[in-house]
Specification:
The structure is a single chain. With 132 residues, the protein is an alpha/beta fold. It has a single domain, classed as Beta-carbonic Anhydrase, Chain A. It has helices at 18-29, 52-67, 89-105; strands spanning 6-11, 33-38, 73-79, 111-117, 123-129. It has a five-stranded mixed sheet with strand order 2-1-3-4-5, sandwiched between helices. Helix 1 (18-29) links the parallel strand 1 (6-11) and strand 2. The longest helix has 17 residues, at 89-105. The N and C termini lie far apart (28 Å). Bound molecules: zinc ion. Zinc ion binds next to loops.
Amino acid sequence: MSAFKFGTAINCIDGRTQQRVIDYMAQKHGVDGVDMVTFPGADGIFSSEGRAAEVELARRAVSISVERHGSKVIAVVGHHDCAGNPVDKERHYMHIRRAVEKVQSWGFAARIIGLYVNDNWQIEEVSQILLT
Ligand SMILES: [Zn+2]
């Protein structure tokens, strides 16, 4: 019996996004399930002033997912029609790239990916950074 393979996602609370993110990470990154760290407009917290407490909560949750569950892939997710971070697609891409850089700076031995759930509720991969 092989071990359950965990992935990690920092995602919005939005219920339209989560199954799609799980399915994408299962298909593209071979995980069996995703530890979901959720905040309203999660991609925006890394680019906003005064959100350090949420960033720290995200870091602590991700650390458990990586260090205790052995996750090797961390996604940061933004999405179309986000009530928590109501900006246009271009700005979501900026926020997602910034979030990927921030998560990379945490130094976990995992692949960090940026995902955008578009207006057709399909996943676009924003960026991918390999850590060794
Ligand atoms: Zn949202």
